[in-house]
Design brief:
seven-stranded antiparallel sheet; 16 strands; nine-stranded mixed sheet
Length: 370
């Protein structure tokens, strides 16, 4: 079922996407401004469900690649957003028919809105993850054999390029080098898919889900209810920690925002003498207190303001913030052995098994079925 996305819904969309982005995906405020500018100049965007996409459609994802910390100072332009889509359509020799989100997370939920508006294309109510991950190959389409390349990229200076690589890991490696050389943030377009493939490989209903989460937080505040509890209910997750941010170590290296945050437990249900450690690479990857692991990638680790319920991205974490931390389930497909090899703790260098949002150690879908 199609629906119309206007500027009035962008606030809820970006807020909900920042929740699902697990701390990454870029500053949702910057993405909101870009989307609102495009909608004001070009009119509303038609959002279509996966079942409405023709089998022979040409679907391209659009996203920002790089360190979210950089985008705070290096603001993208609308020309930069549409340049890789146009370049890739020319390279493929076919008209692009639909735009999709590579991930729902911060700015990467609204950049495709801007691209769709400026190009006059429909936007698909779906994305490639159901959350955000730091590396380009970390999308469900990779598990379905969809190649990231040809991949087009562009920066704010007008540089545009198209990569043709042997696999998605090489696309990530080469594009990341280009990203660093071009200022640690670029706009990209890739993962060309037909409608048939998109229906199989993408996460359906992502954008509508973001709007529901964002509006749920706002409505809870208006009703003087607990917005964090409302978010937990909408995600089917759990709140597992609350307290004060006492330390943040963060640096921009190799095109990523990497670091670690410590939260001293003060809220109800958190032991006053416990400290939660959050490790992140753009997105939160591991949440643990001492030897107790609460949750790890690929399930979602989300930091919210303790009072307002607003999501806090990794680049916005600051000393003294009062926060509550929740965990939520990811798309079930992320728990296959192949997916865990790509996005589980081991891939990021952590010597521990994946832990689900409820705290239990991971068993892959294959192990559970055995």
């Amino acid at each position: 079922m199609s629906w119309t996305l206007t500027a009035d819904a962008i606030g809820d969309l970006s807020r909900g996407a920042a929740v699902l982005g697990t701390g990454g995906g870029g500053d949702p405020y910057i993405g909101s401004l870009l989307a609102k500018q495009a909608l004001a100049e070009h009119g509303p965007v038609t959002v279509v469900g996966l079942d409405e996409v023709p089998d022979d459609a040409l679907v391209l994802t659009v996203a920002m690649m790089g360190a979210p910390t950089v985008m705070v100072e290096k603001l993208p332009s609308l020309d930069e957003v549409i340049a890789p889509v146009t370049a890739l359509g020319t390279y493929l020799g076919r008209p692009v028919t639909h735009v999709a989100c590579a991930e729902v997370g911060g700015v990467n939920s609204t950049i495709p809105v801007a691209a769709a508006a400026a190009l006059g294309l429909p936007l698909i109510d779906a994305d490639g993850m159901g959350r955000a991950f730091p590396e380009l190959q970390m999308v469900l389409p990779t598990l379905y054999g969809v190649t990231a390349s040809p991949l087009a990229f562009a920066d704010e200076k007008g540089n545009v390029g198209v990569l043709q690589t042997v696999d998605n890991n090489w696309t990530e490696r080469i594009a990341r080098v280009a990203c660093v050389e071009m200022g640690c943030s670029i706009m990209i377009s890739g993962f060309p898919m037909t409608g048939t493939v998109a229906r199989e490989a993408l996460v359906p209903g992502s954008l509508a889900h973001c709007v529901a989460i964002g509006s749920g937080i706002a409505e809870a505040r208006t009703a003087k209810a607990d917005p964090v509890a409302a978010t937990v209910s909408l995600l089917g997750g759990r709140e597992f920690f609350g307290g004060k941010v006492v330390d943040v170590e963060r640096g921009t290296t190799a095109g990523f925002a990497r670091g670690r945050a410590r939260i001293e437990g003060t809220a109800t249900g958190s032991a006053a003498d416990s400290t939660l450690a959050l490790s992140f690479q753009n997105e939160h990857l591991i949440a643990q207190a001492g030897d107790e692991v609460f949750v790890t990638t690929p399930d979602l680790i989300i930091v919210l303001d303790a009072e307002s319920g607003e999501p806090i991205t990794t680049e916005a974490l600051r000393y003294g913030q009062r926060v509550r931390v929740i965990a939520a389930p990811s798309d079930p497909r992320w728990h296959s052995a192949e997916a865990l090899a790509m996005v589980g703790p081991g891939y990021f260098g952590y010597d521990l098994p994946s832990h689900r949002f409820d705290g239990t150690a991971e068993r892959t879908l294959e192990e559970a079925a055995a």
